[in-house]
Amino acid sequence: MKYIWLVAGCLFLGLGVLGVALPILPTTPFVLAALFCFAKGSDRMHRWLLSTRLYQKHVKKFNETRTMTLKSKIVILGFASSMLIAGFYFSKNIYARIIIILLICIKYYVFIFKIKTAPDPTKEKVQEAIVIDSDR
Fold first, then answer.
1. pTM score over 0.90
2. Quick one: pLDDT at residue 123?
């Protein structure tokens, strides 16, 4: 059974890595699924994935708080939307266009209503600096 979990983890991790470059594939859910599979299949692979830059950069904060900053949401949605709109423009198949429109709607619904917006840590630091300066 451990080998099945390891194979599934590698498959999900591969999809997560592809999701970094392809806006149609989401990175976070696939890396989370890989993390779950590795936890079931191998402690060594689980610890390795937790230490990777992919996890640290794309998944760690979301996994801990279930939130994203507004800036992250805008960047991800902007890039994903531009790629999907390009696919819509170049596609002549009506079914492909319908699927692309559905994907865009689902992405915006999830990002707006399902993923909470976290405060931007850089703005908090700037506001703290302003408060400290005004106290002087």
1. no
2. 64
